[in-house]
Design a protein that fits this description.
By secondary structure, the protein is an all-alpha fold. The protein contains eleven helices and no strands. The radius of gyration is 23 Å and the shape is globular.
């Protein structure tokens, strides 16, 4: 009876997980399928043939939309946000690890932007730039707006990492004559490297597809999410779905590269005998 019950529980959990995955990727699969519409196909089912015409159309001159420019801006902005998030989160984790006066209020202030509606953050930063006489741009105001979204996640991850990080590794390195910098560079950093890759992944992906915090801060040039949103009102071909499919593959590609980097780091740590 116990074995039958466990088998039933297993199948129920498996069915629940399958429904969960279907809920997550069902709408996405619809976009992916429609991106392969035939040359005379429309924006809805039924499909009128199958082709890669609309993927080819992405690389042709468009009457409406700036695919290449908006993608480049989103990629560059994502890389800027990723690098800044990794560095600031690492420094914040090291600082809070030591403890200092006012650390607790500063911690809550740092993560408070997570509970503020994104559109209000975007509006506030955009208005601040206008009051200061500065022009909002994707590489300045939007960059700051995205950091209010990515930094709290990065900081929380690094806090969790350092909360369970044993200082015995650093003490052993210093006992062997290493300086504080050498202990950090050759002991601490290799151990926390997978977590830093995760922080970077969070930073890039959260920035790459961010819409609300970019809406009032991007200025005259759209990032990719804004471009896609604008296209929904004036593009009447499946090229929009092809663009969505390509950008989704880019996101999965970034995740794959990050997982590969984590696997390589884990393999190197295993060779060194670091758990």
């Amino acid at each position: 009876m116990t074995s039958d019950r466990r088998t039933l529980e297993f199948y129920l959990l498996a069915a629940f997980f399958a429904l969960f995955v279907l809920f997550l990727y069902g709408p996405l699969s619809t976009i992916l399928i429609l991106s392969f519409q035939g040359p005379n196909g429309g924006l809805t089912f039924p499909m009128n043939g199958v082709s890669t015409r609309w993927f080819q159309n992405l690389f042709e001159t468009q009457a409406v939309g700036d695919f290449g420019g908006s993608f480049t801006r989103s990629a560059l902005l994502g890389l800027m946000v990723m690098a800044t998030t990794v560095v600031v989160s690492l420094l914040a984790g090291l600082a809070f690890r030591r403890g200092f006066f006012g650390a607790t209020p500063l911690f809550y202030l740092a993560i408070s932007s997570l509970v503020v509606p994104s559109i209000l953050v975007s509006l506030g930063i955009g208005l601040s730039f206008q009051i200061l006489g500065l022009e909002p741009t994707w590489w300045s105001s939007a960059f700051g707006a995205h950091l209010t979204w990515t930094l709290p996640f990065g900081v929380l991850i690094m806090f969790a990492v350092f909360n369970r990080f044993s200082p015995a590794y650093e003490e052993a390195a210093r006992d062997l004559g290493a300086s504080s910098w050498q202990a950090f560079a050759h002991v601490v950093l290799p151990i926390i490297a997978p977590s830093l890759v995760g922080v970077g992944l969070f930073g890039f992906t959260l920035s790459y597809d961010e819409f609300a915090r970019t809406l009032m801060t991007a200025g005259s040039f759209n990032t990719l999410p804004l471009e896609i949103y604008g296209m929904t009102t004036n593009v009447t071909t499946p090229v929009l779905y092809a663009l969505g499919a390509v950008t989704t593959l880019v996101s999965f590609g970034v995740i794959g590269v990050s997982l590969a980097a984590i696997a390589v780091i884990a393999r190197q740590r295993k060779k060194l005998g670091v758990s």
